[in-house]
Amino acid sequence: MNSTTSRVTLLKMATLCAIAIAPLTGIERSHLERLVPVIVDAEGWSAVAYIDSTGNKTIGYGHKIKKGENLTRVNREEAMALLALDAAMAAESAPRLVKNYYRLNADLRDALIYMEFQLGHSGAMQFVKFRAAIESGDWLSARREIINSRWHHQTPRRSRKLIDAIFAEIKRGLFQAVN
């Protein structure tokens, strides 16, 4: 790919890669179409490996370098392919976070997928009180758990998507209670 390739083209490439993976995993295409641009904007780009704020070796658009991956440098196409795969894997594992995942609105499901992308499944599973609050519809407690988390304090801009989705549920509930 030449240097004149636009950011929009790269975003489309990553989204198409993620969508191509979706049928294999049963992921809803709409989640990936919304999620990939959010990740690109939040993560930023690095062609070379670096150590992130939590001490993980990372490259591209927030790809955590796993044991056995000898990545020290990637071009944007390779980074987009890694992003597509990581986003699809996050979307595949997110429904296991809460029992009522498929009854949640799309914004909350997207936010949970993004949480999975950020923390990995084992990291997201550690939010026991948060997950219980989501399952019981206790939006105030769910929001409080995220705001008080180390994740939010380390990367507040990234956890904001989840906080905003939960706050929208709180407002929806208040509106329905009044009417």
Provide the number of structural domains. Answer: 2
> Which structural class fits the helix and strand makeup?
mainly alpha
User: H/E element string?
Assistant: HHEEEHHHHHH
CA gyration radius, whole angstroms: 17 Å
The beta-strand count equals 3
Morphology call:
globular
Distance between the termini: 55 Å
Residue runs with pLDDT of under 50 for 5 or more positions: 1-5
Please give a structural write-up.
The chain is mainly α. It folds into two domains: 1-88, Rna Polymerase Sigma Factor, Chain: A; 97-179, Lysozyme, CATH 1.10.530.40. 66% of the residues lie in helices and 7% in strands. The protein is built from eight helices and three strands. The protein has helices spanning 7-25, 29-43, 76-93, 106-125, 128-136, 139-147, 150-154, 156-178, and strands spanning 46-51, 57-60, 63-64. Strands 1-2-3 form a three-stranded antiparallel sheet. Strand 2 (57-60) and strand 3 (63-64) form a beta hairpin. Helix 1 (7-25) packs across helix 2, helix 5 runs antiparallel to helix 6 and helix 6 (139-147) packs antiparallel against helix 8 (156-178). The longest helix has 23 residues, at 156-178. The protein starts with 6 loop residues before the first helix and ends with a helix. The model is unreliable at 1-5 (pLDDT under 50).
